[in-house]
Each structure stands twice: as C-alpha cells, then as structure tokens.
Automatic annotation (TrEMBL):
InterPro entries xrefs: DNA_helicase_UvrD/REP, P-loop_NTPase, UvrD-like_ATP-bd
Residues bound to ATP: A35, G36, A37, G38, A39, G40, K41, T42
SUPFAM superfamilies linked: P-loop containing nucleoside triphosphate hydrolases (SSF52540)
Keywords noted in UniProt: ATP-binding, Helicase, Hydrolase, Nucleotide-binding
Gene Ontology MF terms: helicase activity
Keyword Chloroplast tagged: no
Protein name, UniProt field: DNA 3'-5' helicase II
Cross-referenced Pfam families: UvrD-helicase
UvrD-like helicase ATP-binding domain residues: 14-357
DNA sequence: ACCTTGTGAATTTTT
DNA sequence: TTCACAAGGT
C-alpha cells in the first residue's frame, strides 16, 4: 500500500495555507487561490465556506445576509452542497442560475438593455449589407448592394410571398432551390446565381425585419414584450421573441451591474462574500462584474470579498478567463498550494515537467513512490493490416494482465474525440447512424450533447426514445429486475394476477437481433386494448404516441430527417435506407451505447475524452495522442517541437494554441493516481527531443 | 491563370 | 459555423 501516511511537515504546511486563506477572509482581502491538479482545491473552498459560517455566520444572520458560492457545472454544485452539508447561509449554484436570480426582477432596465442589444444587432446587419468592406462579408452582399431602394423593396415582397418554399427547400441542392423559386430567378437573375449568398441575404433581411418589429412592440408595451426571459435548455438567443440564452445572460448582467449603482449596492449588501470555483473557466463578463462590485465596495467603504479558486493551467476552453484573471481583476492577494494529495511521485514528476512554471508540487505523503510513467511511440507495421483503433485496443489489453485490471480496478483510456470514444467502446454504428442524419448534420454541434450525454435530460428526442427502449430491453432480460421497475406502479395497482402473468410471458417472448426487430416484436404483442397490461406498458413507454411499428418508424424518420423533399424518389430511397440501417444495428451494440449513457459500463476498460475527465481521478490511465486535433493538423506535434527547445522564442510558447495544448496534456496526465502510459499514434522522430524533455525515455509499441 | 460557386467535412465542454 | 478544395467558368 502507498499514499497512506501524511508527512507531518507537509500536513502542517497544508494547515498553514488554510489559515492564510482564513486570515484574508477575516480581513476582507480579495484573494486568488491557485493550486495544481490533485492539490485539494475543492477541499480548500469548502473549508473556507465553513470558516465563514463558523466565524461570521451570526453577523450574517443578523443582517439577513448570505454567502454566494459559484461553480462551473451543476455537477460541481451538487458535489459542494454534499461536502458542505446543510447550510441556510450559503447559496451554492452555477453563475447563470445565480445571476438570473439577481437580475430577473429588474425587468425595466433589462428590457432597455435588450432593446439596445437589438439596435446594435440591427446596426451591424445594416453595416454588413451596405458598407462592410471585409472581404469575408462584402461578396455575400455585393449583388443585393447593387439594387436600388425600390428594387430591394420588390425583392423583399417577392420573398415574403415565397417563404414557405424557401424554408422547405432551404437544405436542398442549389438547383432545386432555384427551380422552386423561378419567380425570384426571373426578376432577380443575379441574386440566385450563388445560392449560398442568396440565403445569407434573405436570412439577414428577414432577421432585420423581425428585430425592428420587436423594438416597435417593446415601445408600445405589447403583451409579452415587457420582459426578457432566460432560456437555459438551449444555447441560442431568440432576441425578437425576448429570449436570451447563457452567453447573453452574462452580457446583460454585466451591463446591468455596470450601469446601475443601486444594483451593485443591493448585491454587496445581501451577499458580502462571493467565492468562485474553477475561476479559469469563468467568463470574462463575470470577472468584470466582480471587479466592479469590489471597486464599488471599497469606494463607499462597504465590506465585501471575492475569492477565486482554481488553476490557470487547467483552462482548456477558450471562453474562460484562463491566465488573464490578474489583467481583468487587479489587486488580488495570491495564495498558492504546491502539495499533491492524489498521485504517486512518478506521476507528480511528470506533471511538474509539463507545467514548467516553477510551481513544482510535492506529495503530501511519505510513502509516495510506486507509480510508473512511460511514453510509447506507435510504430506502424506495414504487414499487419490494422487501423489505429485496433492498435489502441491491443495496447490497452497488454495492461489488463500487467496491472491486474478488473471491474473493481478499471483501466481508463483517454482519447481526443467522441467519435473515437464511440469506436473504441464498440458502438461506432450508433454514433455514425446519428451523425449521418440530416438533423445531426445540420446541427452537428448538438451531437455530443444529444447522443452521448450521460445527463439524460440532455438527450435528443430520438436518442431518448432509443434509450427508453434499451432501458426496457435491459430490464426484461435481467431476471432479477423487480417488477415495479419494469411496469409503472399505476398500471400494476389495477392488474390482476392473471393479467400480470400474461404480460410477463409476453415480455419474455420479446426478441430480435436488432433494435428495429425488437420494437417490431413489441408491436406484434401489442393490441392497444386497455385490458392488456402489456399494451398499457407499451403506451406508457411511448407516451401513447405509437400504435404500430409503422408509426414508430415514421416518427424516427421524420425527426432525424425533417423537411426532406418527399417528392424526390431518390432522396426518399436513401433516407429510408439510412433509417433502416440505423434500426438494423444489433441490440448488443445499442446495449453498449445504453450502458455508456447510463454510466453502467461493465467493461474493464473505459474510454473518455481528455476534456470529459476534468476534475476526475483514476488509478490507471492511458493517454492516446496524435498530431492533429480539430482543424489543427499539427497541434501536439508542434507543441513537442517547441517544448524543451531553447531556440524557440519565449513569446511563441505564450501563444494561445501552445498554452491550450499544454493545458490539455496537463489535464489528461494529471488524472493518474498510480500508472500512466502515453501512446503516440503518429511518427515522432521530428520532435523526440521535446517528448524526452518531459517523459525521459521513448519506448516503442509493438517494438522497435 | 484566376475567379466564382458548390459541396462536404471538421473538436472539445459548460450553462 | 467555417474552411478547404474540386469543378467549372471567363
């Protein structure tokens, strides 16, 4: 056993650091607490909250004041609430929830800001149309720009007439849209030459119209236009319907705070302490709000404190404040912690080298050795026809015996993309089945949330439907599942024993190779009668929406391929093929997807993205790396060419891309408690020096 | 030879 | 949404 005995010296140091934080809190100093991976950041935050309650709680209660604790995710909110226990004095929430609570009752100024935002957007669009010379914008509006005012009005009229056709054929090939809009083509031949630009023009003038109409409605106090609403379910503003989403909420919040001193006063007086978790991920607008509150409080001698807790090296998203905290909020007192409570010495040594910023961590334990870190370069064997994902699986499997991997001691394998996670977890067809649909091609950025989220409330309509089916399938195929978790209680209560046993028998007879086959077998047993418990169960599962397999099929078809041109035989054929292919995927494969989503994976090896494991820790970690990521063809290769290379100017190492790569490497490698392996899939000979500067030795896989 | 146009492919995560 | 590239036109 290791990592069991605390070093007295470091234990004392840890206590001292905590006391330093308390002293600053007691003196109302705004602070920034920085600590690397595994240092116990959340512990420090929770203890600080407890300190405030213990030493200042009575005063807070007397003045009816509260403490605000802001987290980055709902998951973190839950975690902190759990560690903190019940406290009436502390409001733990995400920034969005808290900010909306603070500003939602000030609708008058909020609507004024909203109106200003609409006006700003209108001005931007008018600028794009008429005078923007940006080579990316100008060509799109060139044809429209050449039209006279009268012709523009005529164009607008004819488009308004044809709106239904326009939207129906929006995603059809260019010629189809042209054919549908022949009237427009005849009167304005130039404008339909480039369909991409045409759509841009039409979308812009339509939006202009809506925004202008919205301003008029606000001015005349029309019903529904006297208040702004915050919509948290999707990240998209619908400004002309008075709906804002996450980013705009922060923007409005910042404007409101900076414009209205009375709001600053209200916040400071009600919430004298604000502690922020994971400050590196916090939006600039939020830090700006904090700075303004802090400045206001010192100007008028109010007691107020902001505490930032985090680690700039773990900033892996571009919209967070990252290392710019001191620039936006100057004058913070720094408290640092260079201890590590998570990993073995070998891992700590490696992550210290990655950081390379004179903040070397030391293990808090005296028995901290016993881990291992090795870097492997993958040497492709020309004869063996295996692809990268097979190589990854083979590599991982080597360690199953070596490290005694089991259900209880899992191996966690980190890769860069969800696509690869799906392939390695062996539900590639489910993933591609969804990403290949019209809906997920059009909204490709929704795929990860709607198809792969372990937060069930975020699943898309069809993924959710398939999840319910698989949930049912998995329960009936496990003989130990209690009846009431298969059949809803309201149905059970009114059932006779005879009816129930018929239902159970029917469930047992359900079969099918594929998910489509399984649903077909469900509808073979379904008769729609109220007396059949089985049919009631089916209605309950599908919300009564489907009475036959055809209903079900049509629903899947319509949701995944909305608004397709059903008149076109070839389109119809290819869409039908795609839907049946999706429904032909085996229950086994869908089962793996289901257990991934439900967080019930039974495999000894689990796959995750680098980004997805932030904040987590695992005994055994394999990090899979390659040159490219996203649009960047040489993200990691160029990082290793820079690192440990004295001829590269320092300013190059300060560039955003370099820092982001470094942070990703840091976050992924610092998840390991004991064993860490890195497997690099591309040729590393051009940057082996950089790799050696962090990992010492380069091993080869399968061999050199 | 150069420009325009249309098509298809590409990341991660949170609220 | 943004970018790269192929196809086709001038």
């Amino acid at each position: 056993m290791s990592l069991t005995t605390l070093k007295p010296e470091y234990q004392a140091q840890e206590k001292e650091i905590q006391n330093t934080i308390y002293q600053h809190i007691d003196r109302w100093d705004d602070i920034v607490f920085s600590a690397g991976a595994g240092a116990g950041k959340t512990y420090a935050l929770v203890e600080s909250l407890k300190h405030i309650v213990k030493h200042h709680g009575r005063r807070l209660s007397e003045h009816n004041q509260k403490v605000i604790c802001i987290t980055y995710t709902n998951a973190a909110t839950a975690e902190i609430k759990e560690r903190l226990g019940d406290s009436q004095l502390i409001f733990v929430s995400t920034i969005h929830e808290r900010l909306w609570e603070l500003i939602k009752n000030h609708q008058k100024p909020l609507v004024a800001i909203h109106k200003g935002n609409l006006a700003k957007k209108i001005a931007e669009m008018e600028h794009d149309i008429s005078t923007n010379a940006d080579p990316k914008v100008e060509p799109k509006f060139r044809v429209y720009r050449a039209l006279s005012q009268e012709r523009r009005a005529e164009f607008e009229d004819i488009i308004s007439d044809k709106l239904d056709i326009y939207y129906r054929l929006y995603d059809s090939p260019a010629n189809k849209l042209r054919d549908g809009l022949t009237d427009v083509g005849e009167q304005f031949p130039d404008i339909l030459k480039n369909v991409g630009n045409f759509k841009k023009i039409v979308d812009t003038i339509l939006r202009l119209k809506k925004y202008k109409a919205c301003i008029e409605k606000i001015d005349s106090d029309l019903d529904g236009y006297t208040e702004v609403r915050y919509e948290s379910r999707f990240n998209r503003d619908i400004l002309h319907r008075m709906i804002i989403s996450h980013d705009t909420l922060l923007e409005y919040g910042q404007e409101l705070v900076s414009q209205y001193d009375i709001l600053k006063k209200i916040i400071i007086d009600s919430f004298p302490y604000i502690l922020i978790d994971e400050f590196q991920d916090t939006n600039t607008a939020v830090v700006t709000i904090m700075r303004q509150l802090s400045a206001y409080s010192s100007k008028f001698g109010h007691n107020f404190l902001v505490g930032y807790f985090g680690d700039e090296m773990q900033s892996i998203y571009d919209d967070g404040i990252g290392h710019n905290l001191p620039t936006i909020h100057a004058g913070l007192v720094s408290v640092n912690k260079f201890l590590n409570r998570r990993s073995h010495q070998e891992v700590i040594d490696t992550i210290n080298k990655i950081r390379d910023d004179n903040t070397d961590q030391k293990s808090i334990y005296s028995d901290c050795t016993g881990g291992s870190v090795e870097f492997y370069a993958y040497k492709k064997d020309g004869r063996a026809q295996i692809d990268n994902s097979e190589a990854v699986l083979n590599f991982a499997n080597r360690y199953v015996n070596l490290w005694n991997i089991s259900q209880e001691n899992k191996l966690h394998c980190l890769v860069l993309t969800n696509k690869l996670v799906a392939t390695l977890s062996k539900f590639e067809n489910v993933h591609s089945g969804f990403t290949g649909t019209k809906y997920y091609k059009r909204f490709w950025d929704r795929t990860n949330t709607e198809v792969l989220s372990t937060d069930l409330t975020k699943l898309g309509t069809i993924p959710r439907l398939f999840f319910e089916i698989m949930n049912f399938q998995s329960k009936i195929s496990n003989p130990r599942t209690p009846l009431e978790s298969i059949i809803d209680r309201t149905i059970l209560e009114n059932a006779s024993f005879d009816e129930l046993s018929t239902c159970i028998k029917k469930c047992q007879e359900l079969a099918g190779e594929s998910i489509g086959g399984f649903v077909e077998s469900i509808f073979n047993e379904y008769d729609g009668s109220q007396s059949s418990i089985f049919s009631q169960k089916v209605d309950h599962m599908f919300n009564g929406s489907f009475k036959s397999y055809d209903n079900f099929y049509k629903h899947v078809f319509d949701e995944l391929f909305p608004n397709i041109d059903t008149e076109d035989e070839s389109v119809l054929e290819s869409v039908n093929k795609h839907v049946s292919d999706l429904l032909s995927i085996t229950l086994e494969e869908f089962g793996r997807w289901y257990r991934f989503i439900a967080d019930q994976q039974d495999s000894e090896i689990e796959f995750h993205t680098y980004h997805g494991v932030k904040g987590l820790e695992y005994e055994n970690v394999i990090v899979i790396m390659e040159n490219d990521f996203g649009r960047n063809r040489d993200k990691f290769s160029s990082f290793f060419m820079h690192v440990g290379n004295d001829t590269v100017p320092e300013e190059d190492k300060g560039r955003a891309e370099f820092m982001n790569t470094k942070n990703l490497l840091y976050v992924s490698c610092s998840r390991a408690i004991r064993n860490l392996r890195v497997l690099y899939l591309d040729d590393i000979t051009k940057f082996d020096k950089g790799i050696k500067s962090i990992f010492h030795e380069i091993h080869c896989y399968p061999d050199c």
